[in-house]
Amino acid sequence: MDNRNDWENNKQPRAVAASRDTQGADPQVMACLRRLIDANGPLRFDTYMEAVLYGEGGFYASDTLRTGKTADFVTSIELGPRFSWCVARAIQDWFVRTHAESKTHAVSGVSEVRLVDIGGGGGKLARDVRDVWHAMWTGHFSAVHGAADAHVDPHVDAQADPAFPVGSPTPTERSFSHSRAQVPSLTVAVVDTSPAARAAARAEGLLAVASWEELPFAGNVIVAHELFDNLPARLLYRGKQELRVGMDSSGVLQLYAAPLTKPLARFRAEWDLAGSRDARLTSHGERAEGKRGVVPVPVGACSWIAEATRRAVPPTFLLAVDYGDDVSRLADREDWPVRAYQGQREVDPLDLVGKADVTCDVPVDVITRALCDEGWDTRVFSQAAWLQKQGIHEMDVALLREEQAAALARQTMRQLQAKSVRNEIRALTDPAGFGGFVVWEASRAFLE
Questions:
Q1: DSSP for residue 352
Q2: Are 179 and 421 in contact (CB under 8 A)?
Q3: What pLDDT band is residue 168 in, cutting at 50, 70 and 90?
Q4: What pLDDT is stored for residue 336 in this prediction?
Q5: Mean pLDDT in the chain?
Q6: N or C: which end of the chain has fewer CB within 10 A?
Q7: Crossing angle for the helix pair 124-138 and 82-104, to the nearest 10 degrees
Q8: Is the Cβ–Cβ distance between 251 and 34 less than 8 Å?
Q9: Is 26 helix (H, G, I), strand (E, B) or coil?
Q10: Which of 242, 232, 244 is CA-nearest to residue 42?
Q11: Can you give the three-state secondary structure of 398-434, one letter per residue?
Q12: Closest residue by Cα to residue 54 from 202, 206, 210
């Protein structure tokens, strides 16, 4: 944490935003913030995020499960299992490529998949991947049911899915020398700081732990779905100052513009942000004209990438999904890059502390450079493009045929089921929504 004198040297601190609902905040978290501010002066925003999300009494430290259709927010994973099935397909493709590379390098090939879902919540993605893993390798996969051999449905079996065919090898399998009796073993684990999330994952028969250190194995596949936006970030303001969180005498939280410290000055210079546009904020931090130039600096995400690199022994596959934009566009955007959610509604990031999820838009090019600097071969996609790469368009075509066949046969429930899945696919690929999210596919090859 920066020294208090760094703040006190700012002769005329200026409040640029203030909280409006301190009554709804968690008392334990507010007391923690007061202690930190009394001891250190106004807090860097990453320190604030750490306290309100992960500290004692924080949002993810409670006994409440935060993800799901009736919880505080919904992700692509909660829409249905198809996103997770596409993750399984991507892991399968990585496994086959790695197996081929092992022959080229004359080294022992990877023989199993050890999937670690970081920030995996109640374990839905890990469970969905686990449940279709064997079916994907043996060809018993359905776009409607997943593991078709576990769901006897003559309509599905009669209408083979061209993307995920029932009873025939996938393109991936055709290039794989193993027999179908040798489906690669899959071990899955969830790492999540939330006690409620770990309990939910364990109820699904999954291994769930609170930290990397508690894992009984080293993962070779790492998934980070909407993790980066929840990791602590600092806020660069107008390319000249840093936003910090303070508290006035009445206990109201406020954002202050403070002098830059050396790390943020280096970040500004590295990303050429000295000329960011005026970012004058309104009194309550609403999105408004002139509110430009606030850039989240993802210190937590960059630290996490370094940690993942250290803990994962190559060959390794990393899949990360989040929302954000390149630094230059974030600096010029009119909307506020920090958001908070409670009960699937957006609230002010300074309100309802400890009871609302606080997130920051992710600087995409900063994350990409951090991965490359750590030795990851990295490719970046929109979520819509990435899902198409995994065959979701072909899945949609097969489901359209299923829907039409059901309509001709006057099988209403079967028709509605296929239509519902197609709606899920539309939501996943909508460029104005989840389809506009960013996917990082990164891999590290065998050690020399």
A1: S
A2: no
A3: very low
A4: 87
A5: 83
A6: C
A7: 60
A8: yes
A9: coil
A10: 244
A11: HHHHHHHHHHHCCCHHHHHHHHHHHHHHHHHHCCCCH
A12: 210
What's the CA angle centered on 91, arms 417 and 68, to 5 degrees? Answer: 45
Cα dist. 331→16, 337, 340, 439 in Å? Answer: 17, 9, 20, 21
CB atoms within 10 A of CB 94: 22
Q: How many CA atoms lie within 13 A of 422 on its CB side?
A: 16
- Length of the chain counted residue by residue: 448
Cβ-count burial of 170 within 10 angstroms (0-12 exposed, 13-18 middle, 19+ buried)?
A: buried
CA dist 78 and 127 (Å) reads 12
Distance, in Å, from the CA atom of 95 to the CA atom of 136, rounded to the nearest integer, reads 13
Neighbours of 426 (CB within 10 A): 13
Q: What are 43-99's pLDDT values in tens digits?
A: 999 999 999 999 999 999 887 776 655 555 689 999 999 999 999 999 999 999 888
CA distance 235 to 258: 10
Q: Are 55 and 26 in contact (CB under 8 A)?
A: no
Find the angle CA(11)-CA(13)-CA(18) to the nearest 5 degrees: 170
Q: How many CB atoms are located within 10 Å of the residue 84 CB?
A: 24
Please state whether 365 falls in left (phi above 0), alpha (psi between -120 and 50) or beta: alpha
* DSSP state letters, 134-178: HHHHHTBEETTTEEGGGS--HHHHHS--SSS-BSS--HHHHT--S
In the block, residue with structure tokens 């692509």? 76
Using an 8 Å Cβ cutoff, are 284 and 18 in contact?
yes
Nearest residue to 283 (alpha-carbon basis) of 364, 202, 350: 350
The pTM (predicted TM-score) of the whole model is 0.85
H-helix segments, 217-298: 262-270
| Structure tokens, 194 | 């939330």
Token pair in block for residue 265? 């000055």
Q: How far is CA 142 from CA 54, 90, 92, 290, in A?
A: 39, 17, 16, 50
Structural domains of the chain sorted by starting position, each given as residue range(s) with its CATH number in brackets: 4-69+230-368 (3.40.50.12710), 76-225+376-444 (no CATH)
CA distance 209 to 41: 34
